[in-house]
Amino acid sequence: MAAAHEHLADSADEAPIPFRQAVEALRAARLRPEIEIDPTPAPKRLAPFAYALEAAVVERASAPGGEDRDLADGRLVLLHNPAGDDTWQGTFRVVTLARAELEPEMGADPLLPEVSWSWLTGALDARGVRYGAPSGTVTRAGSYYFGGLAAREPATQIEIRASWTPAEGPGGVPDLAAHLSAWCDLLCQVAGLPPATPDMAPRGGVVSLPQRRGAQPR
Fold this sequence. Notes:
Blueprint: H1 2-6, H2 17-28, E1 30-31, E2 35-40, E3 49-59, E4 69-85, E5 90-102, H3 104-107, H4 112-126, E6 131-143, E7 155-166, H5 176-190, E8 203-204
Helix pairs in contact: 4-5
InterPro entries: DUF3000
Region (Disordered): 199-218
Protein name: DUF3000 domain-containing protein
């Protein structure tokens, strides 16, 4: 986990205790087994303190020697400004990206942007997390293939960019494990997975992403 600590701040000792506790909550979150997640370099200019994760929803190969396939991927960034931010309406901000390739019939749905945004808010509400000042965009892009690629079916990609302010709990620390779980629920939903069931044992802690295999072209 040494690499993960490098992204905590320029000096981990300088990071405020609420931020360090929030990061530890992210690391300890128990997630669905289809989720593979790993720390990644955080942006340096958005806030005094930042921590970032990238994640993928992975479909395991059904046969020995087969390749796993990424069904969706994304990025979550935790920002912290101890002095507060008027735009955030708080001292923490969660900034996320989720993207996936959709089935043709779903990609053609005119209500897709509104439905996709409701997936995000629904995931947060289902986890019972408290948050404010949500904002974001839903982008739908179509790909059509010609020439040597003409045999490929048209494809639709969706990209959901969102941010929100997590409500602070005891000691000024939000329940970031619940926010991360809700975001992973969104990733699984855009990947087309069914809702989690009680027999799906979550996996605890941040693990390393393997070399990306079978990723859909973006």
